[in-house]
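no rush on this but wanted to send it before i forget. theres a chain ive been looking at and ive put its sequence and its fold in token form underneath. i want to understand how the tokens follow from the sequence so walk me through it. thanks a lot i owe you, the record is right below:
>
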Amino acid sequence: MSTKSEGDFVRIRHRLPYSGKGFDTLGETVKAIGKAHPYAQKIGPMEVGKPFIPIEELVPASEAEGRGPLTVHQAIQRSRMEELTIDKNKTGLQTLLEMFNIVQEEGFFPGYMSVGSKANFQKWLEIRISSTRMFLFGVPVIPQEEIPDDVFILCGTDTRDPEPDDIRFSLKVTLP
């Protein structure tokens, strides 16, 4: 979910769960969204098999409080988390690839990398991550003050282009 202020209104983008069962339920789905979200400005695109529908609302600023975006940290706290013990015989990069594999085996896409300390994370992987484009293998790297400096969390999402509220699974390691 993301927000953008436009005068006395706030544009809120988020995703609604969708069964993705097919076009025969499309009209009913749009009607239900219109009733539940009277400020909807844009709905879609809807895709068969996709578990969500993107929606944009233009909400009066006075009603927008509490509808702000979910942070990655908040989404991680709401998701199922497993902890992986680092094998001392593996390099950081080998462990990271193992984590990617576990997330995919769980049925998710690697969506976010949350790190307590970017410097510690880079040292562990023995690589440099740009300060201007903080991505690794196409996945955003997000430093977070809320987690310890020696913690790295790989988040599994149900879409390749995720918002924080798409996080469904997290895999945590404590860096050596």
